[in-house]
C-alpha cells in the first residue's frame, strides 16, 4: 500500500503493482544503493526547504515513502531492455500521438520512437514478463503477456483521448507513481450509471442555459461555455472528490469563459439575481456605496455537499478583465485560509493542503501569454507561499481572440510554461466527458499525495467568437466551418447515453425542458428581486462600511508595554549565535534607546507597532524581497544563527497568547506577490498584510493588481482590504529607478473631491496615501490599520535616508496612550505666527533638508517663513490645514515645495485642493523640479544643483 506519513492515504493499487511501477531503469545493486542515498539527501533538502513553514506552524506533509525494488524485478528489466525502452518511449512521448483535438484540425504526427521495429519487437505473439516494467493491472498473466497485448495496452493508455506528460519531473518517486497510477487505473476507469446520468444532466443544463441566454439576452456578451461544456463536468468531479476526501475549503479563480454557466449550476448563484443584473440593475442593495461590475466578474461562495460528512465551501473570487490576474489572489487567499484553518484545527496530523485546495481555471492564450501565470507558478512550492498544491484547468479553445495557436505561443503545448515548476500535465479531449472526469481524478490524487501543482489541459473549441456578438469567420473561416457543421458536446454525450440505455430520448428532453422552465420562472421573479448584501459576514462581521475616514484615534500604548515589546523584539537565546555586528549595531542600541525612551528610530517604531498588535492577538504577514533583514539592513525582524542558519523571529516570542507574524522573504516578483498579499488581505480582517517593495518604484510591475484590485476592489465588489504597501521613496541621488515610488499614480486612483473649502467636508477615500516623516507616525499608522472598525488599503511613501537620520527620530512619549497619527505636523520654526509671510507646504524627507537650511539661516529668515508637513495626502487634511493657515493670518505667499519633478510627486493632487483653502486672492506657487520624462536625472552634478536650487528658492528673501 502506498503511504504518506502524517495523514492517511489510500489508493487502488496492490503493493506488487506499486513496487513494479518504480522499476523503470536497469539499476545494478550498487547503483540502486547510490540512488537510495540520494533520496535521503533529497528528504533533507525537502525538510530544509519547508523549514520556515514549519517554524510558522504550517504542518508540511512528509516526503512520499520510497518503495523498494525487488531483485527479481531488476533482473527482469535487464533481460528485457528492449521492452523497457518501448514502455519508456510511450510514457515520455506517447502524448504526441494522441487524439486530443475535438475539431480534428491538428496534424497528427508520426512518432518514430513508438515504432516496434525500432526495438526489434515486431513479433506480436512473443510473450514477456511485465513485472517491474509495466503496471497494467488487467493483464491476466503478467508473467506471460504477448507483445500484441502490451502494444494495445500502451496505445490505449498513452495515445487515446487522454495524454500525459510526467517524465520531465525530476523526482523519481513522482514519475513512477504517475506511471503506475495511469497504467493500473485504466481498468478502473469505468463510470457507473449514476455518474453518467449526472454528467448528462450537467451537460444538458449547460446547453439549455446558454440557449436560454442567447434567446432572452441575445445582445449581451455572456462568454458562454458552448464547445467547452465538459469544463463543468471537470469541476463537478473535482468538487465531489474534495468532498469525499474531507477537504472543507476550495478557492476558485477563473476568467469569463463559462463563468455564468458554472455560477448558476454548480455554484448555486440564483438565476433571478443574474437576470436582475442583466436588466441593468445593481447586484448590491441600493443603499450600499458600490459601483458594481460586469456580469463576467461576479462571484458566489456556496457550500456544496456530494453526500459526505462535511460540506465543501467553495469561494469563487471576483476577477477583473485583465486575464489571469486572479491567479495569485487565489493563491494568497488560500494561504491565509490555511492559517485560519490551522488555528481552528488541533489534529496533529493535519498538514498543508489537507483541508483546502486551490483551483485555477485559465484560457489557453492567456496561460501562455500572461507573465503573471509564470510568476504565480513560481510561488507554488516556496515557503510562505505554498498552500498544498493547486489544480489548474486550461480551457483550451485552440484560439485567442482572433489569434490561432501558431501565432500565440512558441511552445508545442499551451501548458508547457508549467514545466517551469516541473508540474505534470494531463491533456484530454473535451468531447469525452468520462475521460475528462478521469483526468480530474488523476490530477486530484497526484495533488493529494505530493501537494504540488498539476495541469489539466482540456482541449475544446469555442462555438462562437470571443463573445457572442463577434464574427469569428472573419479570421478563422475553416475552423468555424467545422464547428458549425458538428454537433454540440452535450448532444454527443446524450446520444452515447441513449445508446448505452442510461437515458431515453424522453428523459433527455424532459431534463432540458424542466431546466428551461426553471429559468423562465427565475426570469419572471427577477423583476421583484431585491439584492442582499454579501459582505461583512463571518470573520468580517462587526466591521462597517465607513461613510467617512477616521480623522484621529488613540493608537498609543502604555509605556511599560512598549519597553517590554521593544526589548523582546531583539532578545535571543544565549545559545543562538547572532551576527556580532547585529549585536553591536542593532540589538544593544535598541535596548539602550528603549530604556532612555528617546531617539527611537524607524525600525524600532515599526517593531513596536508589530509587537503590540501581535500582543493584542492580531496576526501579521510581512512580505517582500529581503524584508526579513530589510533592503537597507534596517529591520532585522528575523535573525539567522551564524552556526546553524536556523531562523529565529523574536516578535513571535512576546507572550504565550499573542498572534503570529510571518516574515516572508519573497522571490523576485512584484505582480504575483502583491496579488498574493491582496488575496491574504481579503480573507480575514484579523491579519495585517504588509508588502514592502525593495524600492518604491518597483511597484510599477504590479500595476495591474493596484489598478484592478487594491484601488477598486471595495468599490466594485464590496471587498475591504487592509493591505499596507511600504514603498521606499526619496530623492537622494540614486538615479531614475530608485528614487520615486510613483506616488502620483496612487493619488490619481483616489476618489476625493478637489474643492476642499468646506471645513466640514466628509471624505471616504478608497485608499489612504501617506508621507510619514517620523518613526512615531509609522507606529500609529500601522496600528490604526487594525484598530479601525473598517479596512482600507494604505500606501506609504516610506523612508530611505530617514531610516537612520538623527533628526528623524521619536520618543516613547510620542507613542504612549493618548497619542495618534498626525495628518499634518505643524510648523515649529516660526515663533511669531503673525510675522509669517510665506507658508511652505512640504511632504516627505525634503522637510529635513529645508529645516536644516532654515536653521542655518534663521537670522536672515527671521519669523517670515513657516514650513508645514503634510503627512497624509489622501484623505486630504483640509480642516487641519485650514486651521494651520489661519494661524499665519498675515501670510500672502503660499508654496508647495517638492523634490520630485512637476509632473510627478503629489503636486498635481494637492494643487487644486490647497488652492481652494488658501486665502482668496492668493495663488499657490510651485517650487520643485521641472517636468521630466524620467523621475529624476542620473547625472550627479545636475541632481545636486537642482536640489540646492529647490531649497534656495523655498527660503529666498520675501
From TrEMBL:
Belongs to the alpha-ketoglutarate dehydrogenase family. Residues 600-805 form the Transketolase-like pyrimidine-binding domain. Its cofactor is thiamine diphosphate. GO terms for biological process: generation of precursor metabolites and energy. CDD domains: TPP_E1_OGDC_like. PANTHER family: 2-OXOADIPATE DEHYDROGENASE COMPLEX COMPONENT E1, 2-OXOGLUTARATE DEHYDROGENASE. One of its GO terms (molecular function) is thiamine pyrophosphate binding. The lineage of its organism: Eukaryota, Fungi, Fungi incertae sedis, Zoopagomycota, Kickxellomycotina. Keywords: Oxidoreductase, Thiamine pyrophosphate. This is Transketolase-like pyrimidine-binding domain-containing protein. Pfam families: E1_dh, OxoGdeHyase_C, Transket_pyr. NCBIfam families: 2oxo_dh_E1, PRK09404.1, PRK12270.1. Transmembrane segments: none annotated.
Amino acid at each position: 500500500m502506498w503511504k504518506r506519513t502524517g495523514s492517511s492515504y489510500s489508493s487502488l493499487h496492490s503493493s506488487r503493482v506499486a513496487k513494479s511501477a518504480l522499476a523503470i531503469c536497469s539499476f545494478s545493486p550498487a547503483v540502486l544503493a547510490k540512488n537510495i542515498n540520494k533520496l535521503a539527501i533529497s528528504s533533507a533538502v525537502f525538510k530544509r526547504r519547508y523549514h520556515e513553514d514549519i517554524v510558522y506552524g504550517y504542518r508540511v506533509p512528509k516526503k512520499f515513502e520510497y518503495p523498494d525494488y525487488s531483485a527479481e524485478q531488476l533482473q527482469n528489466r535487464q533481460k528485457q531492455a528492449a521492452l523497457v525502452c518501448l514502455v519508456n518511449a510511450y510514457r515520455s512521448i506517447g502524448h504526441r500521438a494522441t487524439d486530443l483535438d475535438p475539431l480534428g484540425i491538428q496534424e497528427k504526427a508520426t512518432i518514430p520512437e513508438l515504432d516496434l521495429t525500432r526495438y526489434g519487437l515486431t513479433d506480436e505473439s512473443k510473450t514477456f514478463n511485465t513485472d517491474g516494467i509495466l503496471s497494467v493491472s488487467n493483464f491476466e498473466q503478467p508473467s506471460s503477456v504477448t507483445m500484441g497485448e502490451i502494444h494495445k495496452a500502451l496505445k490505449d493508455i498513452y495515445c487515446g483521448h487522454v495524454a500525459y506528460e510526467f517524465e520531465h519531473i525530476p523526482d523519481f518517486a513522482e514519475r513512477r507513481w504517475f506511471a503506475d497510477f495511469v497504467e493500473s487505473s485504466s481498468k478502473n476507469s469505468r463510470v457507473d450509471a449514476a455518474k453518467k446520468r449526472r454528467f448528462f444532466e450537467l451537460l444538458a443544463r449547460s446547453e439549455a442555459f446558454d440557449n436560454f441566454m442567447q434567446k432572452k439576452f441575445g445582445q449581451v456578451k455572456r462568454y458562454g461555455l458552448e464547445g467547452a461544456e465538459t469544463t463543468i463536468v471537470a469541476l463537478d468531479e473535482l468538487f465531489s472528490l474534495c468532498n469525499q476526501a474531507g477537504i472543507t475549503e476550495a478557492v476558485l479563480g477563473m476568467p469569463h469563459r463559462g463563468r455564468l454557466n458554472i455560477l448558476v449550476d454548480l455554484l448555486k448563484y440564483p438565476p433571478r439575481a443574474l437576470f436582475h443584473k442583466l436588466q441593468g440593475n445593481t447586484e448590491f442593495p441600493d443603499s450600499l456605496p458600490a459601483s458594481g461590475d460586469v456580469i463576467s466578474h461576479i462571484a458566489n461562495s456556496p457550500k456544496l455537499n456530494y453526500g459526505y460528512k462535511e460540506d465543501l465551501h467553495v469561494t469563487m473570487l471576483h476577477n477583473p478583465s485583465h486575464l489571469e490576474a486572479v491567479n495569485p489572489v487565489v493563491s494568497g487567499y488560500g494561504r491565509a485560509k490555511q492559517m485560519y484553518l490551522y488555528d481552528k484545527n488541533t489534529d496533529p496530523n493535519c498538514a498543508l493542503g489537507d483541508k483546502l485546495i486551490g483551483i485555477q481555471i485559465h484560457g489557453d492564450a492567456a496561460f501562455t501569454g500572461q507573465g503573471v501565470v509564470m510568476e504565480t507558478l513560481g510561488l507554488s512550492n516556496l515557503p510562505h507561499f505554498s498552500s498544498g498544491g493547486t489544480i489548474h484547468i486550461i480551457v483550451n479553445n485552440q484560439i485567442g481572440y482572433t489569434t490561432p495557436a501558431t501565432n500565440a505561443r512558441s511552445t508545442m503545448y499551451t501548458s508547457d510554461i508549467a514545466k517551469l515548476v516541473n508540474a505534470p500535465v494531463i491533456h484530454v479531449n473535451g468531447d469525452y466527458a468520462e475521460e475528462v472526469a478521469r483526468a480530474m481524478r488523476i490530477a486530484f490524487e497526484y495533488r493529494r499525495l505530493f501537494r504540488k501543482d498539476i495541469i489539466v489541459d482540456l482541449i475544446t473549441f469555442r462555438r462562437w467568437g470571443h463573445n457572442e456578438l463577434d464574427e469569428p469567420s472573419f479570421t478563422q473561416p475553416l475552423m468555424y466551418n467545422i464547428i458549425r457543421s458538428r454537433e454540440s458536446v452535450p448532444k454527443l454525450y446524450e446520444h452515447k447515453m441513449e445508446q448505452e440505455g442510461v437515458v431515453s430520448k424522453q428523459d433527455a428532453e424532459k431534463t432540458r425542458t424542466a431546466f428551461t422552465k426553471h429559468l423562465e420562472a427565475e426570469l419572471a421573479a427577477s423583476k421583484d428581486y431585491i439584492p442582499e448584501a454579501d459582505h461583512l459576514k463571518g470573520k468580517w462581521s462587526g466591521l462597517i462600511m465607513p461613510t467617512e475616514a477616521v480623522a484621529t484615534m488613540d493608537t498609543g500604548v502604555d509605556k511599560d508595554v512598549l519597553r517590554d515589546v521593544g526589548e523582546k523584539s531583539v532578545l535571543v537565546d544565549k545559545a543562538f549565535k547572532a551576527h556580532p555586528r547585529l549585536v553591536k549595531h542593532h540589538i544593544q542600541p535598541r535596548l539602550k534607546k528603549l530604556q532612555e525612551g528617546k531617539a527611537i528610530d524607524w525600525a524600532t517604531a515599526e517593531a513596536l507597532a508589530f509587537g503590540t498588535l501581535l500582543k493584542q492577538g492580531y496576526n501579521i504577514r510581512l512580505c517582500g524581497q529581503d524584508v526579513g533583514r530589510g533592503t537597507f539592513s534596517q529591520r532585522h525582524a528575523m535573525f539567522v544563527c551564524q552556526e546553524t542558519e536556523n531562523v529565529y523571529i523574536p516578535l513571535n516570542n512576546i507572550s504565550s497568547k499573542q498572534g503570529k507574524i510571518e516574515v516572508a522573504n519573497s522571490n523576485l516578483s512584484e505582480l504575483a506577490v502583491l496579488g498574493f498579499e491582496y488575496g491574504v488581505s481579503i480573507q480575514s480582517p484579523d491579519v495585517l498584510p504588509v508588502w514592502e517593495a525593495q524600492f518604491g518604484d518597483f511597484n510599477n510591475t504590479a500595476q495591474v493588481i493596484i489598478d484592478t484590485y487594491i484601488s477598486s476592489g471595495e468599490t466594485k465588489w464590496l471587498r475591504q482590504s487592509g493591505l499596507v504597501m511600504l514603498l521606499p521613496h526619496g530623492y537622494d541621488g540614486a538615479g531614475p529607478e530608485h528614487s520615486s515610488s510613483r506616488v502620483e499614480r496612487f493619488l490619481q486612483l483616489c476618489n476625493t473631491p478637489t474643492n476642499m473649502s468646506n471645513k466640514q467636508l466628509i471624505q471616504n477615500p478608497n485608499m489612504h496615501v501617506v508621507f510619514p516623516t517620523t518613526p512615531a507616525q509609522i507606529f500609529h499608522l500601522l496600528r490604526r490599520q487594525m484598530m479601525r472598525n473598517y479596512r482600507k488599503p494604505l500606501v506609504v511613501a516610506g523612508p530611505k535616508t530617514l531610516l537612520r537620520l538623527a533628526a528623524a527620530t521619536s520618543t516613547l512619549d510620542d507613542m504612549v496612550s493618548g497619542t495618534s497619527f498626525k495628518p499634518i505636523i505643524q510648523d515649529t520654526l516660526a515663533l511669531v505666527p503673525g510675522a509669517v509671510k510665506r507658508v511652505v507646504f512640504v511632504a516627505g524627507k525634503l522637510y529635513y533638508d529645508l529645516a536644516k537650511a532654515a536653521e542655518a539661516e534663521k537670522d536672515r529668515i527671521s519669523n517670515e517663513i513657516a514650513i508645514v508637513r503634510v503627512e497624509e495626502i489622501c484623505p486630504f487634511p483640509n480642516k487641519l490645514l485650514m486651521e494651520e493657515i489661519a494661524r499665519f493670518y498675515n501670510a500672502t505667499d503660499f508654496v508647495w515645495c517638492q523634490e520630485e519633478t512637476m509632473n510627478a510627486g503629489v503636486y498635481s493632487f494637492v494643487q487644486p485642493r490647497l488652492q481652494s483653502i488658501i486665502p482668496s486672492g492668493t495663488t499657490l506657487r510651485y517650487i520643485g523640479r521641472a517636468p521630466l520624462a524620467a523621475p529624476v536625472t542620473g547625472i550627479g552634478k545636475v541632481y545636486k544643483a537642482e536640489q540646492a536650487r529647490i531649497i534656495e528658492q523655498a527660503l529666498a528673501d520675501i
